[in-house]
Design goal:
The protein has 13 helices and no strands. The radius of gyration is 24 Å and the shape is globular. By secondary structure, the protein is mainly α.
Length: 281
């Protein structure tokens, strides 16, 4: 005898409302993006358009950015800073998190608590200290100084994130490898890191994105236009003639979003796995 599945009206209404809410959120999320993309193709120079997408689109704003400004240099500076920030963050966070997860040493809990407390203080509190320290060691107005600040700020949170993932890996895997003759370094590089690959990708992508959206730190560290990142250079591009360069700003925003968008789309499945594994125990 076949069982008939009855559909409850309340369930249907809940499902419809849920889809309507999702559609509404998508509209709110997509309208600003579509407007900025349309503004980047606008033949004018102001922030306002009669329609959400121009009727006479043009590539003049992109040509101006690429051939008449230092935008290509700012783009290169940002990508280089992002790559080195991502690399430095992974090099510092991955072994540190492993040490806190697997090793037992004096002061371990105190150091973990210090890392946790450091995340509670806003970065604005240390701006003056950043400037003074970088000036003392001769790294002011350099990309290296900027990378040090980005990676240093990312280490505390990412150490906790990776530690929480390492804690979920059974110790029996490491113990069996050590019985077979593997040492700590081999266990870390050949067992833990491959298992933590989604988390490492997640941490690396977030670290890479830091220079693309940051303005405050780059404003403090960088002074010469040839060293600017995209956020800083684009700001001065608009500030130089306020109210008349917003189409250039929109074109810059579209181009600046491309690397992050490509990374997110190409590594989407891996990053989702990393999000699932980011469970703090």
């Amino acid at each position: 005898m076949k069982h008939r599945h009855t559909i409850r009206p309340l369930s249907v209404i809940s499902l419809v409302l849920l889809y309507l809410l999702i559609a509404l959120l998508l509209v709110f999320a997509l309208i600003p993006i579509i407007y900025v993309v349309g503004l980047s193709f606008s033949p004018g120079s102001t922030l306002y358009m009669d329609t959400i997408f121009p009727t006479n689109p043009t590539l003049d704003n992109y040509r101006t950015l690429l051939y008449e400004t230092k935008f290509p240099r700012w783009y290169l500076n940002t990508i280089v800073a992002g790559l080195f920030t991502s690399l430095a963050t992974l090099i510092l966070s991955a072994p540190t998190a492993y040490a806190f997860s697997r090793l037992r040493f004096r002061g371990r809990k105190a150091f973990l608590m210090v890392l946790l407390v450091l995340q509670m203080f806003p970065g604005m509190m240390a701006m003056v200290a950043y400037y003074v320290l970088l000036n003392m060691i001769g790294l002011l107005d350099t990309s290296i100084g900027l990378v040090i600040l980005y990676s240093g700020a990312a280490v505390t949170g990412n150490t906790w994130l990776l530690k929480s993932f390492y804690d979920t890996v059974p110790k029996a895997l490491e113990e069996s490898a050590m019985i077979d003759g593997a040492n700590r370094f081999q266990v870390f590089f050949k067992i833990l890191l491959p298992l933590a690959y989604p988390m490492l990708v997640l941490v690396g992508v977030f670290a890479f994105a830091s220079p693309f959206g940051d303005f405050v730190l780059s404003r403090i560290v960088l002074t010469r236009p040839e060293h600017y990142t995209l956020a800083l250079g684009t700001y001065y591009l608009v500030a130089a003639d306020f109210g008349n360069n917003f189409t250039l700003f929109a074109a810059s925003s579209v181009l600046a979003s491309l690397p992050i968008t490509i990374l997110y789309l190409s590594l989407q499945k891996t990053m989702i796995s990393g999000f699932k594994g980011a469970v703090v125990r």
